[in-house]
Each structure stands twice: as C-alpha cells, then as structure tokens.
Write a structure and sequence with these properties.
Blueprint (H helix, E strand, L loop, with lengths): L4 E3 L9 E3 L5 H5 L5 H8 L6 H54 L10 H7 L5 E3 L8 H9 L4 E8 H6 L1 H7 L9 E6 L3 H11 L5 E5 L5 H6 L9 H14 L4 E6 L4 H14 L4 E4 L15 H10 L6 E4 L5 H11 L3 E4 L1 H5 L8 E3 L14 H18 L9 E4 L2 H14 L5 H11 L1 H4 L3 H9 L3 H19 L19 H4 L21 H12 L17
Parallel strand pairs: 3-4, 3-10, 4-5, 5-6, 6-7, 7-8, 8-9, 9-10
Antiparallel strand pairs: 1-2, 11-12
Helix pairs in contact: 5-16, 8-10, 10-11, 16-17, 16-20, 19-20
C-alpha cells in the first residue's frame, strides 16, 4: 500500500516529492522534470488519488494568486482614483474661487416658497436623489441634456455630521453644478442640522428624505417610515428651517387615504418646508408590489397647496412624453424622475444633441437647458445685427444613443473622478443594458472593468458588434438618410425595446397601463385570455 506523500523543499528536478516506505529518493528524483509527470511515471501512469490532489492543489494556488493579483490591481486603481479626486478637488476649488472673484454674488438673502423657487429659475425638469448614483460626473451629464434642477444622492446625517472622510468621499460639487439640492436622511434634528451646515454654502437647498420605502430605512428609522411621526417631522423640519440660511424641502409619499396625505403635507409646510416632492405611490408599493403611479392624488394635492408652496410630481416617468403628460395631468410645478433618467440621462432633451455655436462654449458647461436656448438666440441675434451673413444656428446634429451617452459620461469621469469604480460600473451597466443582454461576453468585461480606459474598450467592442450586425441588413433599412442623424439606426432600433427601465415590464406595455390594458396586450401578442391574476403585469419600478 502506498504511504502518505511528504512535501520536501523544492530543488527543481522533481525530488521535491518524496514518499516514505518502499519508494527511494533516487527513484523519484530520476523521474521527468515535471512534478506531475514524475508522479505519473512513478505510479505507472495509473493517475491515482495523489495526481488528482496535485491538480486540485495547483488549481487552488492559481485561483488564490489570481484573486490576490486582482485585489492588488483594484487597490492600486482605488488609490490612484483617490489621488486624482484630491487633485481635481484642489483644482476645482481654485477654479471656483477665480469664477466667484470674476462674478461676485451679492450676499444671499434667505428666500422661501415660491420666491426661492423662482430665484433658481422655476425648474421643471428635476433629477432625483439616487444612492451611489448621483455623483458629480453624472449630475453634470444630466445638466448637459436638459435637467434644470439636480439632487445629490441621499447622505446619512449620522455619518455626514461626524465623519470628515465620509464627506470628502461622497460630497463633491463645482461652480457649474447649480441649482443643487443636497438630501439627507435621519431622525435626529440636531444631526440633520449639523450635516446641513457643512453644505449650505455649496447648494441651494437641503432636502429631508421622507420617502424611502426600503427595509434599511425601517431599520435606520428614516425615510417613509417616519410618515406617521408628525411631531418628530415638525421638529426636524423646523430645526433646519430656523438654523439654515437656505430653504429646507421634503420628499415624501402618499397614503391611499387622501386626507392622511393632506395632513402629512400640511405638517411639513407648517413646520417650514419650502417645497414638497411627492411620490405618487404608497410606502407599501415597492418592488413587485408597485402599482400605477397615482397622478390624480398628486393633482388634488397640487390644488390644495396652490399658491402656497411648489409641488413636484415624482413617479411613473419613462420618457419625455411622460414628463409632459404628468405636467398636464397634475398641474405640478415640476417633474422629478429617477429610474428613467438613470438609464437615459438625455431624457429631457429627447436624446437630441445640439451643435454648440456660442463663442464661449466652455463657459456654458453648467448652464441649464433654457439658459442655453437663450444663449443660442442671443448669438443668432448678434450675428444678424453685426454682419450681413447668415447667422450661425445651433441645430440638432445627432440622436444620442446609449453608446454616445456612455462615452460622454466617461469623458466627464475624466474631468470629475468618482471615488469608487463601482459607481462608474453601475452607470455603465444601466446605460448599456440593452446591448449587454445579447452580447454577454462584453457584459462580463463590463462587470470586471475598474477604470475609464477599460470601460472605453467595452464601448469599442459593442460598436464593433453593432457594425457586424449592420453589414447583414438590407438597403431598405437605411432609408430617410436626410434625417438619419436624428433617428436610431436600424441596428439600434432592434435594441430599443430591451431597455433597463422596462426590464420587468410585460412586453411593450406603457408604464401607466391598467390591468385591462395589460391583458389586452397579452391577448394581442400571445392569443391567450387571462382572467384569474388580477395583479398581472404590474412589476413597475418604484421610481
């Protein structure tokens, strides 16, 4: 019977494996150079358990080495990104100081309600606060494409007020990042105030999260799980309203009972809230339990508070048509979107990219969509008045595909480095979702990428794949070349219905479809009749 194998110091000739008992050191050392071949030769090529153990051990060693190497690469990339971010922040501080010196702002007078809302341009197109998603690069991307008010991600007030490293890692802004609202969560009025004091000189308002329905919010006692604690809400809002030189706003949800919704909102307004963002779903309507967004309740709440405080509608926004429909239905002062704009940051511009003709294009970088339109008209008027040549127009030049959006985002990440590469990866996975569902090999590349250059390589691979697909299309698919720049290519259209926002929806049913409309669509497409499941088709995002 073979005795146990004993490992000895390696000398490179196969003698590192010795066997106690019958086998001699000379017999093993005479084996071929390869350790594995030596074992096989000594055992007559039978491939016994020791050979299998050798394979297993070598494989485990390789996996450990690869994992350690990957961790080391990620750690170096993380340190490099930290260094880039610190350098960029220092440069940004210098640039901001120069901009403020060149454009002095009079001492701020605290405004509230509609006075404050009008002072920031009465924004209609608003980007919601999204955890680990609303970083500076992404915010600037949405501003480029029509967003007129942007929120930061939600910050935990307990961490923000005590931890300077948490603030440095998570809160970043620049001169063009306005108007800006910073959102906090928590239940301690004093901690909320101390957190807000750190940012009040760098934003236009502070928002309290009273709408998060996730389990973590319940454990942390914040978000939508404070909706019943009206006395605490009064203390939280009034503390910030009295202690800050900027307004305080609130983001909350509705109840099925309209009177309860009114009571909650009245409490917030009476305590000093200058604006309310109201999600048209209840706290329980989340995940698979999500239902149609209740725009009718939002309309009634807007009527109730008309002329008192601005009301922003939130929920059920898939594209710009939904934005316009929501404004017309609810009469609210603005519309906030989260999941829709998370996949498509150009949603407010209908994905149309305009050619910048202004002489000082870079100075317009942080301008809002309306401001840019005014600039265009000014340039046109000046050209007509000062020269007898046709004015230079800012015209639509291309339709922004998801690849174009991802590429522009990476450009901004080079200017405004993110603290964590997982933030970049999360954005890229959403931007490119429609392509990655088919090209799974590129999806794997995205899932392990940790730098801007690596993500750019993923874009190159997707473009190559789309080009190969376009080669097999017939000429008929390339009609209307005169408007080609404003439309999706024939290949892009094949991916359009596979969006990230619609990933849990039934077929092509609209986000606001009723149960009957869902069934009608199913009957049309699958020729089936479903009369039992009353809730079928309502896995709509809690946005």
């Amino acid at each position: 019977m073979n005795e146990p194998l004993v490992e000895q110091p390696c000398c490179g000739d196969g003698s590192e494996w010795r066997e106690e008992g019958e086998a001699s050191a000379e017999a093993v050392s005479a084996a071929p150079m390869s350790t594995l071949e030596g074992l096989q030769a000594h055992d007559g090529g039978e491939g016994d358990q020791r050979v299998k153990d050798f394979y297993k051990e070598q494989s485990a060693k390789q996996r450990r080495m690869m994992a350690e190497e990957k961790r080391e690469i990620r750690h170096r990339e993380f340190l490099r990104r930290q260094g880039d971010l610190k350098i960029r922040k220092k440069q940004q501080e210098i640039e901001d100081e120069e901009m403020r010196a060149a454009n002095p702002v009079p001492e701020r007078v605290k405004l509230t309600g509609y006075e404050w809302f009008e002072s920031i341009g009465s924004p209609k197109y608003i980007v919601a606060p999204m955890v680990d998603q609303s970083e500076l690069a992404y915010r600037m991307l949405t501003r480029r494409h029509g967003a007129t008010l942007v929120y930061t991600q939600m910050f935990n007030s307990n961490n923000f007020c005590h931890d300077a490293s948490y603030r440095r890692a998570n809160f970043d802004t620049c001169y063009g990042d306005r108007p800006l609202v910073v959102q906090f969560c928590g239940h301690d009025p004093e901690k909320l105030l101390q957190s807000a004091l750190h940012v009040q000189d760098h934003c236009d308002a502070v928002d309290i999260n009273l709408g998060c329905p996730q389990a973590i919010a319940k454990r942390g006692r914040y978000g939508a799980f404070l909706m019943e604690e009206l006395d605490l809400l009064t203390a939280m809002v009034s503390t910030l309203a009295k202690g800050l030189k900027i307004p305080v706003t609130c983001k909350t949800r509705i109840y099925h009972d309209f009177e309860r919704s009114v009571r909650l909102c009245e409490t917030l307004v009476a305590a000093g809230a200058s604006l309310l963002t109201i999600h048209g779903r209840t706290r329980e309507e989340k995940g698979q339990a999500v239902r149609q967004c209740n725009w009718e309740t939002l309309r009634r709440l807007k009527e109730h508070f008309r002329g008192r405080v601005p009301i922003i509608a939130n929920g059920g926004i898939h594209d710009m048509d939904d934005v316009e429909q929501c404004l017309a239905t609810t009469g609210c002062d603005g519309v906030m979107t989260s999941e829709g704009i998370l996949e498509n940051p150009a949603i407010f511009a209908r994905n149309i990219k305009y050619e910048d003709v202004s002489a000082n294009a870079e100075s317009n970088f942080g301008a809002t969509f309306e401001e840019k339109e005014v600039m265009e008209e000014t340039v046109k008027a000046e050209a007509e008045a000062e020269a007898e040549v046709p004015p230079v127009n800012k015209v639509p030049v291309k339709y922004m595909t998801q690849l174009d959006i991802a590429e522009e985002y990476l450009d901004l990440c080079s200017i405004y480095p993110t603290w964590h590469f997982r933030t970049m990866r999360s954005h890229m996975q959403k931007f490119l979702h429609r392509y990655l569902q088919k090209h799974t090999n590129i999806r794997d590349m995205v899932s392990i990428s940790i730098s801007v250059d690596e993500f750019r390589l993923c874009l190159v691979k997707i473009r190559e794949a789309l080009h190969e697909e376009s080669l097999v299309l017939s000429v008929a698919n390339a009609e209307d070349a005169d408007v080609k720049a404003l439309k999706l290519s024939a290949v892009e259209q094949t991916y359009a219905n596979n969006s990230w926002y619609m990933r849990h929806r039934t077929g092509e049913v609209h986000p606001h479809a009723t149960a009957d409309e869902v069934r009608a669509k199913l009957n049309q497409r699958h020729n089936i009749l479903d009369t039992e499941d009353e809730d079928y088709g309502f896995s709509i995002f809690d946005q």
